[in-house]
């Protein structure tokens, strides 16, 4: 069979077969015009045929038709290339591309996408460079395609967009902005955003997510507000972004408001948005709300299950996780979308290597074990289970090791305390040519911090800058933490001060730094500063504050912040929080409260808590509780030497040498070894370690000479060795000799000999320093005129000019222990033992009966307020701020008397004063401005007000103004223009006697009775507020009992910033010294977030409160004494 000759007729017939309608036989006038202008009609029609074949999935027939076409154009080529790319046939696409003489920007872009889809990113970038080399100008699709390629550096591509005039196109700008945000280059993203003339929802969504990713939640909220003011409709991505912000802020109220907005915007309510809501509730630990939403979702996908499984995994609900995972399997979800990574994370967090191996086996059967995400999850799981050999094996077996793979292994070594090995892996990773990401830096800096290698830390700081993280919130936060842990508090604070932007992690890092240096006042000051800047504290924040209180023996402050965390911020304490509180109470001798807290804790005490109790028993010689704590620890951690050593020391300090020897014998019989005490110092990026009384170290003779020189100087200043720190039954001389060469003293002497005069000395120690060493180092710091920073197993001690940063609290605690030893050698078991310090009871806020429930529910219902059984301690209150409507006056008085009076008399007031009163002219100007804004935003009921110049007379202007005012009153608008005019109208009513205000009897009595200064904060104008309290029907003029008035000029009543401004105005030391009384839940929540003490007034006719709202409530002011 001979091949037929290709003719136009043959091709036309092929095309006709592909087209839904036959090709017309006769030329049309339009065809004639096309031919006349040079347009190839046949090629155009054949291209339509190609498109039809390809859309029907007939790629081979389309290629045959393409090969037979007498004339092909770029469009024909691009159609076939795009089809090959979509089908994954890269070799065929590549062959056709190379054989084509003519290619445009679209052609190149199609090939770039084909290579990127095949995972050949470097080839895609090479194509872009080749395209530019051939002089082809990229279009907007090309630029956005390259920007989305992994490994593309946005700053290098941005100039191309500017060069080719594409930087003004919204599509390109959005891609640039998104790329900058994803790379953490928020400053560059902000510049792009500000320079954009046209913005759409994608623009705002990308910028919001960028801010949220960097922890800049307030800026993200401002962007959301700007988007709404610009009239840009929110998309499902918008709601997802703002819910991410709410979760990052742990802002339940904001999340509930967004949820309500989603319910009203039915067009965006889909499984994607519901999944975002699930994620929000899960990250706020609202598991009940999350589960309720999940059960009510009309449609669920694999993401829905992944979110809820991850949430239960995070909250260590292993049984629920396994049940949901099996449910997913039964529902027939594609195995490849099952949350294997989450399940591996659960196995690691338990840790349960048996579950992890089962998941590993499934992955091997499915051929998924080599996937990047799951392979890295396997490395992480085995690391968390302490099986570093298995983790290393999985890492080594990977054919391609990404930066994430390296990071997973490095993190595993750091988590298992193998910091030097982690540093070696980091060096190997760099030699492999891989760029560290944030997680890598976080882990490796943690390793550097743990080894206290400040030289390495500074090198990593420089490397961070070179890697493009110079000004990011992330880099600032990790560096603050690193410098603090390496004993460089000044550098940590300087890094914090130089950060252009901060988030809650940054604040947590600096609060933690102060806490570990024993500077409790500065830690608390930073905590207050964090609140003032609008950041909500989280569990980590309070853990640092409680640790600061613990290190300084501030029992009252510790209990205050513990209850603040639970009751004001609704944060459930971790075991670590209880450990800090118990440690603080124990160290000041409040053992009855320690025992009470052990009973009240929602979980069993762990080794950290029992060890803390044991340390406190050592200080106060409490042998009875010490034996209980030690027995608990013997069962929990049988190989840990700590309880044996402490209990032995307690007996030794009391002179009970036989009991001490008995404990040591039990320790030896059980094969438990005491950890040797050693200290180390870094000099010229090399670590030098010293063990206590180890006289085999290099340069030991020189070190002993240096110490002898120092001891002579100390003797001149009255130094007397405290031999009670040598807990051995030996003679006096041997005790003195054992004290002389404790490890930290050897390290200090060595550092003095090998570092320049005047430079700080930083010593790290694996155990706590003894009382005599603490005293010795204070004296050395004064003699040598050097700062000496010692980090022991608990905290930092910064010695300078003979003074320690702990304020000698730690030393005083040890002295208490010495006094206990001197007071008695046989400890009584009586509960009234003389050595137990009497401790002032700390006021405890009673928990409401519903405390186990979440503070906020998904639904609101009418009913009684769920009040706490006892009001908080109000003894510190100095100022009271009162709402009016529903709090001091009946809600009916405002709604049924004042509002109708203003509405009914607005025309009369304006007609009587318009044109004759400067006051009214100012009111009208304010109203006009408000109406113009309402008209621009499309507010319902807004009516244009004619200008006076148009000659329409005062009547038309008054009528239009009155119509707007009536509309605002109906909508209960909280705008200054309305409130100011209402105040003028009410003044006329009060002056004429037509109005008299109603104030609750208990409110009037309280204003006369309270010692604290009282203020009013209402959405009504200040003039209206004064009129109400000056003209009460039953109590006369109450203004003498009020010290001031606030209205919405200071800010809206539901905004946190408003209450911060009130606190600044009232000038108390702390916002918690201000009590705010209101009937509105949203106002209460805002004031609480700002740090004010809040009580909700429950009066007849008030709106219902949310279930489990978490606030104290009253029904009468008589319940409050201040």
Automatic annotation (TrEMBL):
<feature type="repeat" description="PPR">
    <location>
        <begin position="169"/>
        <end position="199"/>
    </location>
</feature>
<dbReference type="InterPro" id="IPR011990">
    <property type="entry name" value="TPR-like_helical_dom_sf"/>
</dbReference>
<keyword id="KW-0028">Amino-acid biosynthesis</keyword>
<dbReference type="InterPro" id="IPR023943">
    <property type="entry name" value="Enolase-ppase_E1"/>
</dbReference>
<feature type="repeat" description="PPR">
    <location>
        <begin position="640"/>
        <end position="674"/>
    </location>
</feature>
<dbReference type="GO" id="GO:0019509">
    <property type="term" value="P:L-methionine salvage from methylthioadenosine"/>
</dbReference>
<feature type="repeat" description="PPR">
    <location>
        <begin position="402"/>
        <end position="436"/>
    </location>
</feature>
<feature type="repeat" description="PPR">
    <location>
        <begin position="503"/>
        <end position="537"/>
    </location>
</feature>
<dbReference type="GO" id="GO:0043874">
    <property type="term" value="F:acireductone synthase activity"/>
</dbReference>
<dbReference type="InterPro" id="IPR046848">
    <property type="entry name" value="E_motif"/>
</dbReference>
<keyword id="KW-0677">Repeat</keyword>
<feature type="repeat" description="PPR">
    <location>
        <begin position="200"/>
        <end position="234"/>
    </location>
</feature>
<dbReference type="InterPro" id="IPR002885">
    <property type="entry name" value="PPR_rpt"/>
</dbReference>
<dbReference type="InterPro" id="IPR032867">
    <property type="entry name" value="DYW_dom"/>
</dbReference>
<keyword id="KW-0479">Metal-binding</keyword>
<feature type="repeat" description="PPR">
    <location>
        <begin position="301"/>
        <end position="335"/>
    </location>
</feature>
<dbReference type="Pfam" id="PF13041">
    <property type="entry name" value="PPR_2"/>
</dbReference>
<keyword id="KW-0460">Magnesium</keyword>
<dbReference type="Pfam" id="PF01535">
    <property type="entry name" value="PPR"/>
</dbReference>
<dbReference type="GO" id="GO:0000287">
    <property type="term" value="F:magnesium ion binding"/>
</dbReference>
<feature type="domain" description="DYW">
    <location>
        <begin position="718"/>
        <end position="810"/>
    </location>
</feature>
<dbReference type="InterPro" id="IPR023214">
    <property type="entry name" value="HAD_sf"/>
</dbReference>
<keyword id="KW-0378">Hydrolase</keyword>
<dbReference type="GO" id="GO:0008270">
    <property type="term" value="F:zinc ion binding"/>
</dbReference>
<dbReference type="Pfam" id="PF14432">
    <property type="entry name" value="DYW_deaminase"/>
</dbReference>
<dbReference type="GO" id="GO:0003723">
    <property type="term" value="F:RNA binding"/>
</dbReference>
<dbReference type="InterPro" id="IPR036412">
    <property type="entry name" value="HAD-like_sf"/>
</dbReference>
<feature type="repeat" description="PPR">
    <location>
        <begin position="104"/>
        <end position="138"/>
    </location>
</feature>
<keyword id="KW-0809">Transit peptide</keyword>
<protein>
    <submittedName>
        <fullName>p0402A09.8 protein</fullName>
    </submittedName>
</protein>
<dbReference type="GO" id="GO:0009451">
    <property type="term" value="P:RNA modification"/>
</dbReference>
<dbReference type="Pfam" id="PF20431">
    <property type="entry name" value="E_motif"/>
</dbReference>
<dbReference type="InterPro" id="IPR046960">
    <property type="entry name" value="PPR_At4g14850-like_plant"/>
</dbReference>
<feature type="repeat" description="PPR">
    <location>
        <begin position="472"/>
        <end position="502"/>
    </location>
</feature>
<keyword id="KW-0486">Methionine biosynthesis</keyword>
């Amino acid at each position: 069979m001979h091949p037929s000759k290709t003719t136009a007729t043959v091709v036309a017939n092929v095309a006709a077969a592909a087209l839904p309608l036959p090709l017309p036989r006769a030329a049309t006038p339009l065809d004639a015009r096309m031919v006349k202008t040079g347009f190839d009609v046949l090629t155009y029609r054949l291209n339509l045929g190609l498109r039809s074949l390809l859309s029907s999935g007939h790629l081979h027939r389309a290629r045959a038709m393409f090969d037979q076409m007498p004339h092909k154009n770029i469009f024909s080529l691009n159609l076939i290339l795009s089809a090959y790319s979509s089908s994954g046939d890269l070799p065929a696409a590549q062959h056709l591309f190379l054989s084509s003489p003519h290619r445009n920007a679209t052609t190149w872009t199609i090939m770039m996408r084909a290579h990127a889809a095949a995972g050949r990113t470097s080839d895609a970038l090479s194509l872009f460079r080749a395209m530019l080399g051939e002089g082809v100008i990229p279009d907007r699709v090309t630029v956005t395609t390259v920007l989305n390629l992994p490994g593309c550096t946005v700053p290098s591509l941005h100039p191309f967009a500017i060069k080719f005039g594409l930087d003004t196109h919204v599509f390109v700008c959005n891609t640039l902005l998104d790329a900058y945000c994803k790379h953490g280059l928020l400053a560059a993203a902000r510049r792009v955003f500000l320079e954009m003339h046209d913005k759409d929802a994608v623009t705002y969504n990308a910028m919001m997510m960028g801010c949220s990713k960097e922890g800049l939640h307030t800026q993200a909220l401002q962007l959301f507000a700007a988007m709404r003011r610009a009239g840009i409709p929110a998309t499902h991505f918008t709601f997802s972004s703002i819910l991410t912000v709410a979760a990052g802020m742990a802002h339940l109220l904001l999340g509930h408001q967004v949820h309500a907005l989603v319910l009203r915007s039915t067009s965006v309510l889909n499984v994607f948005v519901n999944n975002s809501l699930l994620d929000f509730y899960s990250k706020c630990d609202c598991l009940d709300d999350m589960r309720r939403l999940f059960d009510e979702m009309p449609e669920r996908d694999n993401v829905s299950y992944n979110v809820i499984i991850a949430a239960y995994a995070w909250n260590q609900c292993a049984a629920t996780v396994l049940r949901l995972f099996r449910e997913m399997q039964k529902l027939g979800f594609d195995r490849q979308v099952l949350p294997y990574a989450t399940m591996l994370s659960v196995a690691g967090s338990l840790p349960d290597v048996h579950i992890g191996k089962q998941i590993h086996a499934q992955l091997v059967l499915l051929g998924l074990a080599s996937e990047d995400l799951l392979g890295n999850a396997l490395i992480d799981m085995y690391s968390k289970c302490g099986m570093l050999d298995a983790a290393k094996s999985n890492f080594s077996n990977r054919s391609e090791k990404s930066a994430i793979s390296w990071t997973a292994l490095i993190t595993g070594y750091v988590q298992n305390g193998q910091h030097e090995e982690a540093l070696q892996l980091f060096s190997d990773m760099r030699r492999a040519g891989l760029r560290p990401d944030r997680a890598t830096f976080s882990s490796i800096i943690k390793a550097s911090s743990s080894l206290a290698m400040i030289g390495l830390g500074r090198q990593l700081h420089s490397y961070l800058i070179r890697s493009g993280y110079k000004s990011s919130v992330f880099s600032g936060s990790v560096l603050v933490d690193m410098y603090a842990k390496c004993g460089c508090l000044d550098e940590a604070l300087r890094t914090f001060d130089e950060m252009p932007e901060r988030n809650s992690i940054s604040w947590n890092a600096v609060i933690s730094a102060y806490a570990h240096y024993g500077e409790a006042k500065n830690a608390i000051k930073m905590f207050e500063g964090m609140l003032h800047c609008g950041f909500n504290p989280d569990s980590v924040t309070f853990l640092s504050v409680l640790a600061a209180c613990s290190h300084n023996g501030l029992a009252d402050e510790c209990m205050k912040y513990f209850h603040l965390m639970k009751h004001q911020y609704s944060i459930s304490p971790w075991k670590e929080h209880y450990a800090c509180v118990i440690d603080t109470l124990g160290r000041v001798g409040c053992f009855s409260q320690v025992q009470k807290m052990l009973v009240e804790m929602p979980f069993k005490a762990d080794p950290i808590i029992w060890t803390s109790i044991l340390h406190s028993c050592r200080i106060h010689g409490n042998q009875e509780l010490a034996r209980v704590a030690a027995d608990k620890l013997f069962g929990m951690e049988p190989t840990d030497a700590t309880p044996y050593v402490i209990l032995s020391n307690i007996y030794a300090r009391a002179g009970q040498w036989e009991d001490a020897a008995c404990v040591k014998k039990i320790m030896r019989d059980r094969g438990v070894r005491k950890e040797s005490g050693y200290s180390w110092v870094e000099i010229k990026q090399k670590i030098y370690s010293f063990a206590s009384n180890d006289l085999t170290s290099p340069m030991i003779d020189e070190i002993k000479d240096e110490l002898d020189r120092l001891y002579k100087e100390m003797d001149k200043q009255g130094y007397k060795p405290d031999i009670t720190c040598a807990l051995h039954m030996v003679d006096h001389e041997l005790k003195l000799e054992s004290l002389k060469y404790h490890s930290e003293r050897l390290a200090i002497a060595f550092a003095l000999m090998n570092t320049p005069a005047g430079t700080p000395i930083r010593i790290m120690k694996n155990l706590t320093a003894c009382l005599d060493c603490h005293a010795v180092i204070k004296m050395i710091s004064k003699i040598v005129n050097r700062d000496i920073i010692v980090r022991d197993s608990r905290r930092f001690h910064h010695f300078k000019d003979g003074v320690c940063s702990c304020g000698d609290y730690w030393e005083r605690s040890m002295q208490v222990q010495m006094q206990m030893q001197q007071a008695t050698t046989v400890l009584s078991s009586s509960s009234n033992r003389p050595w137990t310090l009497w401790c002032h009871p700390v006021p405890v806020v009673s928990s409401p009966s519903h405390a186990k429930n979440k503070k906020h529910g998904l639904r609101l219902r009418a009913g009684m307020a769920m009040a706490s059984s006892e009001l908080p301690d109000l003894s510190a209150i100095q100022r009271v701020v009162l709402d009016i409507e529903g709090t001091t006056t009946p809600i009916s008085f405002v709604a049924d008397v004042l509002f109708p009076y203003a509405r009914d008399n607005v025309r009369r007031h304006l007609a009587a004063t318009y044109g004759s009163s400067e006051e009214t002219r100012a009111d009208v100007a304010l109203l006009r401005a408000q109406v113009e804004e309402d008209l621009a935003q499309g507010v319902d009921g807004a009516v244009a007000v004619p200008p006076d110049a148009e000659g329409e007379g005062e009547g038309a202007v008054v009528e239009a103004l009155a119509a707007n005012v009536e509309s605002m009153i109906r909508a209960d608008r909280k705008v200054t223009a309305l409130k100011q005019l209402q105040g003028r109208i009410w003044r006329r009513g009060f002056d004429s006697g037509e109005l008299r205000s109603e104030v609750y009897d208990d409110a009037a009595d309280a204003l006369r009775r309270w010692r604290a200064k009282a203020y009013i904060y209402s959405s009504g104008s200040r003039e209206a507020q004064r009129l109400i309290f000056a003209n009460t029907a039953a109590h006369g003029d109450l203004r003498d009992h009020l010290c001031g008035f606030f209205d919405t000029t200071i800010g809206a009543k539901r905004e946190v910033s408003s209450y911060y401004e009130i606190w600044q105005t009232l000038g108390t030391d702390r916002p918690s010294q201000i009590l705010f009384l209101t009937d509105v839940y949203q106002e209460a929540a805002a004031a609480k977030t700002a740090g004010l003490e809040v009580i909700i007034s429950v009066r007849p006719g008030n709106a219902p409160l949310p279930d489990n709202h978490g606030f104290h409530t009253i029904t009468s002011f008589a319940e409050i004494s201040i």
